[in-house]
Amino acid sequence: MKTTIEQNESDQSLLDLINRVENKVIESNLRRDKFARLKYLFKKINKKKIDFLNKVPLLSYSIKRIIYAFITLYIAIAFVYILIVLSLDDISVMNDFNFARPPVTVGGPEWKEWVKNKKTALGLDGSLLKQILIYWRNVTPFIPKSIRMPLRVSHVGITWGNPETKWFWLGLILNKSNGIINYPVMDYFKKAIPISFQIGVVAVLISYIFGVPIGILAAKNKEKPVDNVITWWFLILISTPATILISVFWLIGIKYLNSSGIWGENNYTNFLAIIAVALLLMPPIVIDTRRYVIDEMSSDYVKFAQSKGLGSIYIFYVHIFRNAGVRIIRLIPGVLVISLFGSSILVERFWAAPGMSQYILKGVSTKDVFVVLGYITLSAYVGVFSSLIGDLILVLMDPRVKLSNNRKE
Questions:
Q1: How distant is the alpha carbon of residue 203 from its chain centre?
Q2: Domain ABC transmembrane type-1 spans what residues (predicted)?
């Protein structure tokens, strides 16, 4: 009897073991089947994505360039943010503090509490990573932000205003030299951007209207006296310090045009300021145009066209200039950025034009963190996306550029 019971228990244990093994095998097969189905699904989606992007290569290229542009932009912003914030002291944050007011003394516990509250109101508290992430969010235009501006800050606490929805937020003014303290930086930039844009755009147009024909003239007369004079003249202009060129035009306006040298006084004064920027932009345009045209003139297809007996005017305007022109036009967005955020700075300072330069110069000298960051952020946005526009212009206008290799998966 006992042997029979032991035998039954042994058989039951064996059956349980077999059932467990079978269940594990079944579960393993199910997991394997799920993984195989998931792998097949991803492969199918990826194939459809590749087929779609091969049909619209320009869209694929644009998406990649935009993603890379944002990555570059955010890295640049983070790097500049770290440099500026690390050099920021408490006095720069407390520019609106009345140092004659008792009983708060600089360095005391109430002062430290006041500084802490002020940094909290400005978003400068917490870890550096947290601050960078907040600033990234604020300058990302397609994410709505609920912003509460501080109405009053003291050692007791912060009085907040009503929340406002903003799509692009650059922070608040910290120093009265740049405007009203705790006033939005972007509101001041909106007033200054049209002035800088007016100077920059007109200067770019003038520089291209005169620079491209001069570059073509030099290329057509390669290594001849005309080419040598043009090349040496514009090399001298490039090597001349910008301050000297601008000061010469500024003094001409004062001495010969009876101008006070202040922007907006009359059309002559404004015109001289724009011409000064155009002269700074023109030398690279002339030299690049000359180089591009000479490169195309020495191409095999030009020699083939000449061997067929085609006229020199037809070859130049239909073949040479069209292909060189694509590379010239591609540079326009970049030149515009240089004129807006580079060349125009000195001109605006000499002619006292109320453009963007006043904020970057004053912002750096007063350690106004959000003014400097705002200027650099705007210039980085415009610079990165102007590079994207230039590449898209090249792709659209030059049929030799291929975006898809039509791979078969």
A1: 21
A2: 193-394
